[in-house]
Design brief:
alpha+beta, Umud Fragment, subunit A, nine-stranded mixed beta sheet, 27% strand, elongated
Length: 207
């Protein structure tokens, strides 16, 4: 998502409704200086702030982000995150690198999705650094699923999750240079070890 495009789109929508952008941002709860912060940081704000501003302006988040409307086949835009810190709700994370579109049908049944930019090579060759993975927000998974997992208060890690018969979890890298890590049921509770999303799709840009 182009930051300047987003800012200009907000200004155009405000102009149509006869309200100043600073007032719209302030009264919506997104923050009076939101647009200035966006331009100085070069990144789109959190999902929560996008939703606040969209609600105030009477548009959908897709329209606010510049997605074409009026088509029954229009998709849903989801944020691509750089990191997922522990203890911060996904919708409040400010580290949005980009936006991806997923089929509207995926959102049925109140299912939620987010993107995560792959960093490092622990999941090579299945995932390469810079890849974008689309994840369905979940707190459980099937054994063998690739998941975003929070461990001991650190940022989320992407690993294959193997569920053992005794209830322990093995976080398994696909790169043999990295050892797997096994957590007992007691460690899962005490650290804690939390599954926050299951990979449903890989998106790789050809350079």
């Amino acid at each position: 998502m182009d930051v300047q495009f987003f800012v200009q789109n907000v200004k155009d929508l405000c102009k149509k409704r006869g309200v100043k952008p600073t007032i719209a941002c302030d009264e919506s709860g997104a923050g009076k200086n939101l647009l200035n912060h966006i331009e100085s940081r070069g990144s789109i704000p959190s999902v929560a702030k996008v939703q606040m501003l969209a609600d105030y302006l009477g548009v959908t988040t897709s329209e606010l982000l510049g997605e074409a409307s009026g088509s029954s086949s229009a998709g849903i835009r989801i944020p691509v995150l750089g990191t997922i810190p522990a203890g911060i709700p996904l919708e409040a994370i400010e580290d949005i690198l980009d936006w991806e579109e997923i089929p509207a049908a995926w959102g049925s049944g109140d299912r939620q999705y987010f993107g995560l930019r792959v960093r490092g090579d622990s999941m090579y060759p299945r995932y390469l650094e810079g890849d974008t993975v689309i994840l369905r927000k979940e707190t459980t998974c099937e054994s063998g699923d690739d998941c975003a997992v929070l461990v001991n208060g650190d940022a989320a890690t992407l690993k294959q999750v193997m569920i053992r018969g005794d209830g322990s979890l093995e976080l398994r890298p696909t790169n043999p240079a990295y050892p797997p890590r096994i957590y007992s049921p007691a460690e899962i509770e005490s650290f804690p070890v939390q599954i926050i999303g299951v990979v449903v799709e890989l998106r790789r840009k050809i350079k």
